[in-house]
Write a structure and sequence with these properties.
7 helices, single chain, mainly alpha, 177 residues
């Protein structure tokens, strides 16, 4: 009786793909990948699967919005405004961050901009650390772009870049109200 039940269970299960068929083990098949030739694991032909990495989009660098360009931010006010709107829109879609968290960060940005010139870069380095902590602690993935931009601004160490970063943050706080 138990053998009959086992047989019925095997028959009702769908066949398992990629599990040691033939003389080769799962990762040792002719044709390259663990699935054999022409299967999902084979990256040889990229023709009709929606791009270079297939329909599932294996290229992680293309996920999310493009980085904010510091030069464009410094020279184009409309670009700054569009980026602020974009970040706030992503915040509403992705995150559960509070307005008070954002205002606290903005206060820290304002303090860093007002710091003496000899200490300003250090203040922005510390601000980036604080922003990274806040993003990680509260899951604010929509602010990742700001962290990358803050790194660019800090490396550039230009007063105008610091001011524009502050302006962007101010716009984000305003549009988030």
């Amino acid at each position: 009786m138990p053998q009959e039940q086992e047989q019925r269970n095997r028959e009702s299960r769908p066949p398992r793909e990629g599990r040691g068929a033939g003389p080769h083990g799962p990762g040792d098949r002719p044709g390259g990948g663990p699935h054999g030739p022409g299967d999902r694991g084979d990256r040889g032909d990229r023709g009709d699967r929606g791009g270079p990495y297939g329909a599932r989009g294996g290229d992680r660098r293309m996920e999310g919005p493009p980085e904010i360009e510091i030069e464009k931010l410094m020279s184009d006010s409309l670009y700054l405004d569009n980026q602020a709107h974009s970040i706030v829109s992503r915040m509403r879609d992705m995150d559960s961050g509070t307005k008070s968290q954002l205002r606290r960060l903005y206060s820290a940005v304002r303090r860093a901009v007002r710091a003496p010139e000899s200490e300003r870069q250090h203040e922005f380095v510390m601000l980036r650390a604080r922003l990274a902590y806040t993003i990680a602690r509260h899951g604010l993935r929509s602010l990742d772009q700001l962290e990358k931009l803050l790194l660019q601004v800090t490396r550039k160490n230009d007063n105008r870049g610091y001011e524009r970063f502050k302006d962007l943050f101010e716009a984000i706080v305003a549009y988030n109200e």
